[in-house]
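Suppose you are handed a protein chain with no further information: no name, no annotation, nothing but its sequence. What can you learn? This example shows the usual starting point.
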Amino acid sequence: MMKKYLQYVLMGIAVFALVVTAGCGSQTNGKGVADHSSSSSVQAESTAPASSASSSSDTQKKDKKLTIKVYYPNDQGTKLIAVKRTVTLDQQEKYTAAMESLMEGTTEKGQTNIIPKQAKLKSVKVANGTATVDFSQELKKNFVGGSTGETMLVGSIVDTLTEFPEVKQVQILIEGKKVETLGGHMDLTQPLTRMNDLLK
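A reasonable first move is to predict its three-dimensional structure. Written in structure tokens, the prediction is:
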């Protein structure tokens, strides 16, 4: 009777030991899973800067600088003077950048601004050697010059765009439409080629 009692006690102790051991193993596994999850988070964080750096690199590649020439009339209105500018091509093409630079005006001695400040550039498109440049109505509405002024204004636009070798002629539009003239002195219904006589 005593032996059976001892056997039951020993069996109980053995079962208890197994339960405790199993519990410890389960806790160890839990920690292992948690540690693995934490490791994944660290890996994800470590790869994030690389992605950001790549994005920054792409932006820098897109933001290219280009040296261009824009043209302004001299004080006497007898010729156009070339001015070198460096523009940044941030998502915009070079033709638009050149025209926007021209419309910023000049403060150089001996040069004068001819494009009305109120005028806005709407678009510049180049196809088959022709640059089509579209302005707001203020280009015509606020133009106050005579025949010389009109020649200089048109010439500054045409010669700035034909600085690009692929542009052979320029069509000027107002609000997306052709106009006969700005001030009654030049025919703007057809594209104009480079006005070299203004550069002498």
